[in-house]
Structure formats: C-alpha cells, structure tokens
Amino acid sequence: MGRRVFIGLTALGALGVAVGGQVQNFLSNAAGSGLGGVLPFGDRFRIYSITNTYPKISRSAYRLEVSGLVERPMTFTLDDLEAMPATTFKKTFQCVTGWKVPDVEWHGVQLSHILETVGVKPEGAFLTFESYDGSDTETLTIDQAHLPDVIVAYQMLGAPVTREHGGPVRLYVAPMFGYKSLKWLSAIRVVTELAPGFWEQNGYPVNAWLDGSTGANNPDPGLT
Ligand SMILES: Nc1nc2c(c(=O)[nH]1)N[C@H]1C(S)=C(S)[C@@H](COP(=O)(O)O)O[C@H]1N2
Ligand SMILES: [Mo]
Predict the structure, then answer these.
(1) Does residue 53 form part of some domain?
(2) What whole-number distance in Å separates Cα of residue 9 and Cα of residue 15?
(3) Which atom of ligand 1 is nearest to the CA of 171?
(4) Atom of ligand 1 nearest to the CA of 178
(5) Contact 126, 115 (CB under 8 A)
(6) 208 and 137 inside one domain
(7) 3-state DSSP helix/strand/coil percent for the chain, to nearest 5?
(8) Do 132 and 181 belong together in one domain?
(9) Distance (Å, whole) CA 20 – CA 132
(10) Where would a tag sit more exposed on the chain, N or C end, judged by fewer CB atoms within 10 A?
(11) Is 127 part of any domain?
(12) Separation of 47 CA from ligand 1 center, angstroms?
C-alpha cells in the first residue's frame, strides 16, 4: 500500500476517535453527494490494510472456519466454496471516505447458502467475521447476512481476488460501505451478542447502508 494512503487512514482513525459521529456524518454526506468524484484519486481502488501488511495465503492453504451457534461447525477449502452455487453481479464499490469504483464485478457464494449449510441455531443473532491479518473484524445481523448480495467472494474484477484485495477470499457486503467487506476472511462465528468491528470501534456506524437508511426496512442491531 502507498505510504500516503496508510498515513491518511491512520489520521482518519484518530479523527474518528476524537469526534466520533460528527466526522462520520461529514464523511457519509461527502460520499453520498458525489464529492467522491472530484477528490483527486479517480475511479480506482485504494488498497487498505489496517496492519500495513497483506497476508499471503495460497489457494491450497486457504480455510474458512464457520463455528459458534451452528448445528454443524465446518471448515471450507477454496475448492469447497467454488463447488457451491455461485452468484455474479456488478455494483459500485464505495469507501466511506468518498472514493468509489463503478461497475465492479463480483463472484462468489451467497453467505446465506453457507449459513444454511452449517445450520444457524435459533439463539444465533449476529455474525462475527475474522481476518487472516489478525486485526480486522466485522459484524452483521443474521438478517443482514441473508441479503442476496452479501457474499463470500473469490473473484473480483473478473479474476481471482488478488492478495492486495483480500484474496483468496474476502467478504463483500454490497449494500454497505466498503469497510464492511472484510479482506482475507478466515472465520465466521455465530454469536448472541453484537461485537462492533475494528472500524466501528473507531467511530464508523455498525449499520453502514449505502442508501443512508437507518433500518425501517432493515434490521438494526441497536447501535448506529
Ligand atoms: N482485513 C481488512 N479488510 C478491509 C480493510 C482493511 O484494512 N483490512 N479495509 C476496509 C475498507 S475501509 C475498505 S474501503 C475496503 C477497501 O478494499 P480494497 O483494499 O480492496 O480497496 O476494504 C475493507 N476491508
Ligand atoms: Mo473504506
């Protein structure tokens, strides 16, 4: 990752801690008003890593562990994931800081399919996602996780997900800002209590809907 991006990210995190919601509102408005388009970056991905490293995981070594409040805890290989029914779609990718990339093609398994495979127990209310980077975490409600455009992605931009973009496998939460799309996905745990993820502990909303909705039609875990 470029040094400039990492410094910017660190500064943003500190700002988020300092003034919390106000920064978030500003950033959300900036992203939603099209200001992203005039920022001096262009329509391309910025590669983020909160650890400033890119975990290196080979195809054969990759595993996705799914555990917690499930009937059948399972560990999936990349072959296992590729053998499941796949979905493909295009969507504009949006970071909450304002940059966006139009018409990104994604391909992978619907998270709902994986959840059906392991069988979520009735008391399971939230999911916690973990990364091979050992630091990033994310969370979704069980209902959010069943949206059809929430996927475990192994292709992006028409090719296998690259190491920088979180390959071999990353989460892609299409209805929400980019920080929900955790890279180098290592584990999914079904839990009873909401555990805010890394970005959320630094001031970003748990519910990161791109359309700015607050939950009338969407389940709200109780935090904003
Ligand atoms: N493991 C991990 N996942 C992550 C991040 C990160 O720093 N580490 N950054 C998030 C943020 S804020 C965004 S906008 C996207 C950026 O995706 P990209 O690095 O593929 O451009 O990844 C998200 N997933
Ligand atoms: Mo982001």
Answers:
(1) no
(2) 10
(3) 24
(4) 14
(5) no
(6) yes
(7) 25, 30, 45
(8) yes
(9) 28
(10) C
(11) yes
(12) 7
Tokens of 3: 């040094």
Domain of 128, CATH number, reads 3.90.420.10
What are the two backbone dihedrals, phi and then psi, of residue 195, each rounded to the nearest 5 degrees?
Answer: -120, 105
Number of Cα atoms under 13 Å in the Cβ half of residue 5: 15
**From the CA of 122, how far away is ligand 2's center (Å)?**
32
Q: What is the DSSP letter of 209?
A: B
Express each pLDDT in 48-93 by its tens digit. 999 999 999 999 999 999 999 999 999 999 999 999 999 999 999 9
- The verdict on residue 42 lying in a domain is no
Phi, psi of 152 (to 5 degrees): -95, 105
Q: Which of 181, 186, 200, 204 to mutate to test the pocket of ligand 1 (most atoms within 8 A of CB)?
A: 181
- Residue 200: which domain range? 64-217
Q: Are residues 195 and 152 in the same domain?
A: yes
Q: Which amino acid, residue 124?
A: G
